[in-house]
Structures are given as structure tokens and as C-alpha cells.
Amino acid sequence: VYDATTDVDVVVIGAGQAGLSAAYHLRRRGLAPYADFVVLDADDAPGGAWAHRSPSLRMATVHGFHDLPDFELPPPDPAAPAREVVPGYFAAYEAKHALPVVRPVRVRSVSSRPDGRLLIATDAGDWTAKALINATGTWSRPFLPYYPGHFTGRQLHYADYRGPAEFAGQRVLVVGGGASAIQVLSEVAEVAETVWVTRREPVYRDGPFTEESGRAAVALVEQRVRQGLPVRSVVSVTGLGPSVAYRRAEQLGALHRRPMFDRLTEHGVAWGDQELAVDAIVWATGFRPEVGHLAPLGLRSSGGGIRIDGTRAVDDPRIHLVGYGPSASTIGANRAGRAAVNEIVRLLGAPTGAYR
Ligand code: FAD
User: Where does the record place a coiled coil (predicted)?
Assistant: First the structure.
């Protein structure tokens, strides 16, 4: 049905936490599925990035998962893999709220038509819309920093990490100062010798994450995107908390951090003339926002990022980015979905009839 151009009011790209929150609020605010809005998702099945996380990430080791609006996740078995629990919950959520998700549809580009509508070109036909909510996350853009030299052993990014089994008995170097590095260390150190390197001295938080520290961290990231600077993850400014994974890594003696090496060698890494041989390197070095398809809109500022006010692109009020920068967490994505829809409804002058 969607092989010709389909006209809607709003297109949401991505059906992760941020896209589903946006879809829920569009529906609540009286937009009808399909005719008025549609969610285009590149994956074959529900779950967003959660469907791709390592099978070894259990609900007990997830930092903190916030339910989507108006449907609670039943208390999960702490030992259950997050990559099964969360996609199951998202599938039930899409069904309960009758959200119009079309998949698999990969958006290739978004451009502006002379008539003022947006053209959303995909691998499964084209859509046009008056407004766009981009909720494409970061999972598909793992970031690998450049270091000179060539290592001939196994190297992988955290996005491809599938648990510790393949590293049994080896010496494994883990790069990165965030929560994913801690998760990898806590698992791999059970079966292998680990070496941890980070660019900066890791910042530790004593207590659990409070509302106040959360707000302060989000405000820092928000300030950067308002200026159009490249996005930093919220986690990068919150510090490492005393999580289950952190405690396990500590018990295993895996948290002795070394500074970043300066080059890769055939069999490992080197700091000056001091070389260390390793069997494998896991790069837990983060992700970047998946926004390449927005390039034709010319939103990138001279600072290298997209300037955002709240969720709205400063240079084009038809475009909202949710799950981006300050809203790249499950709670932030929920709020951003609502905020974006409030502004878009105002922009369109769309109906405000309640959904139930
Ligand atoms: P995603 O879940 O990544 O969804 C994006 C969707 O967009 C995907 O379905 C994808 O297929 C689709 N898509 C992408 N590009 C296109 C395209 N061109 N066309 C069509 N569809 C497209 N946050 C927490 O609050 N708690 C945690 O415990 C937590 N753990 C994390 C662990 C890791 C390893 C990482 C990397 C992040 C973690 N986060 C956590 C932050 C996380 O990014 C957010 O919480 C949230 O899950 C992201 O949701 P999202 O909707 O923005 O993106």
C-alpha cells in the first residue's frame, strides 16, 4: 500500500522508547493513526535498541528502566535478558495503544519540498508530512576513536559484544569510562584477565542517582545542544554509580584503571615504549546520534551539532528530535515525546480530542 507517496500530518522515525512515547501522545491528542501520523521503524520487530543489546545484559544490571506512559511493565524477573523483556513490553505497548508502526522501513533522507511539506524518502516508498519527530537513537552509530597502529587480534565495539564466553582464559582490554565498560568488565573478569583503560580518571558517584543530580546532568547536556555543539551522553556527565555491575567488577578486582594507551601494536597496545600484549580489545566508547538522513535539511550548525531548543530544531520548527542529547534516557525520552507533540499540535492547529 505504501509504494506510492503517502501524505500524513506527522511522521515519527524510530519506534524505540522516544518514538513510542511520541506516538502515544500524538494519539492522545487526537491524531488518527495512519492518515494523520505514522511511525516508520527500520527494525523487523519491536524493541528499538533493546532488541540488540547483549544477551548477558539482565534486567538486574540495567541502570534503571522507566515505563512508557500509561502502561506499566510488570515487575520483570531480574535474571531475564533485557533484550527479551523490553521488546516484549514494547510489542504489547504498540498493540494496547494501537500505534501505527510500519516496519521494516528505513528512512534514507528527509528534505523540504517547495510546497512546505517534508519529503521522507525510504527503502519502502515515500511519505510526506507537515512535521517530523526524529527518534532514531544512537545504537546504529557506534563510535570508535582513532588510535594509530594496527592490532591483529580480535577487536569489537560494545554494540557487537555478546557476553563473556568467547573471552574465557584470555587477556582482554576494555576501553571506556562509562556504564557499558563497567558491564563488560563485570562479566569478562569472571572468565578472563581484564585490563581497563580510560581517557580520563573515572568519576564516581557515592549514592544512588537523585532527582537533583539527574536534573543537573540533563541541564549540562541541554546547554550543549542549545548551542549546537556535538551531543554528549547524559551518562557521561552523571558519573558512575554503585550499580550491581560496578560492585561485581570491584569484587573481581577489575576496576584498576590505566590511562589511555597511545598506539595499537600487532599484539596489543603501547604506552610509549611499554607494550602490553592482549588477545582482544572491547571498545566501550559510546555512540553518536543517528541523524545522517536529516542532512538535506541543512540543520547542522558550525559547532558540529544540531541546535535544539527543548526538542525543536532551532532552524526548522517542523523538526523535533527526541531521545537526542538531554533526552537520551528512558525517562528523558518519555518527556521529550510529550513535549514534541505539544509543540507540533500547536504548529499544526490539530484536533485536541481525547484518545479515550
Ligand atoms: P532506540 O531504542 O535506539 O530506537 C531507535 C529506533 O529507531 C530503532 O528501532 C531503529 O531501528 C530506528 N531507526 C534508526 N534509524 C532509522 C532510520 N533511518 N529509519 C527508520 N528507523 C530508524 N537508558 C536508561 O534510561 N536506562 C538504561 O538502563 C539504559 N541503558 C543503556 C545501555 C546502553 C548500552 C546504551 C547505549 C544506552 C542505554 N540507555 C539507557 C540510554 C538509551 O539510549 C535510552 O534509554 C533509550 O532506550 C533510547 O531510546 P530511543 O527511542 O531514543 O532509541
Answer: none
Q: Which of 47, 91, 85, 24 is nearest to 336 (CA)?
A: 24
**Can you read off the three cell numbers belonging to residue 4?**
506510492
Residue 135 near residue 101 (C-beta atoms within 8 A): no
Residues 9-34 have pLDDT tens digits of 999 999 999 999 999 999 999 999 88
- The cell numbers describing 226, all together, are 542549545
Phi, psi of 289 (to 5 degrees): -65, 140
Check pocket membership of 60 for ligand 1, CB cut-off 6 A. Answer: no
Are the CB atoms for 23 and 101 separated by under 8 Å? yes
Regarding the beta carbon of 180 and ligand 1, being less than 6 Å apart is answered yes
Please tell me the distance from the alpha carbon of residue 59 to that of residue 139, in angstroms, as a whole number. 19
Residue 12 phi, psi (nearest 5): -105, 130
Judge residue 74's burial from the number of C-beta atoms within 10 Å of its C-beta, 0-12 exposed, 13-18 middle, 19 or more buried: exposed
Q: Are 322 and 16 in contact (CB under 8 A)?
A: no
ipTM of the complex: 0.97
**Total-model pTM:** 0.93
Condensed to tens digits (0 to 9), the pLDDT of residues 331-343 reads: 889 999 999 999 9
Alpha-carbon distance 316 to 158, whole Å?
34
* 337 Cβ contact partners less than 8 Å away, ≥ 6 residues apart: 18, 19, 20, 21, 22, 23, 24, 25, 69, 133, 135, 322
Amino acid symbol at 95: A
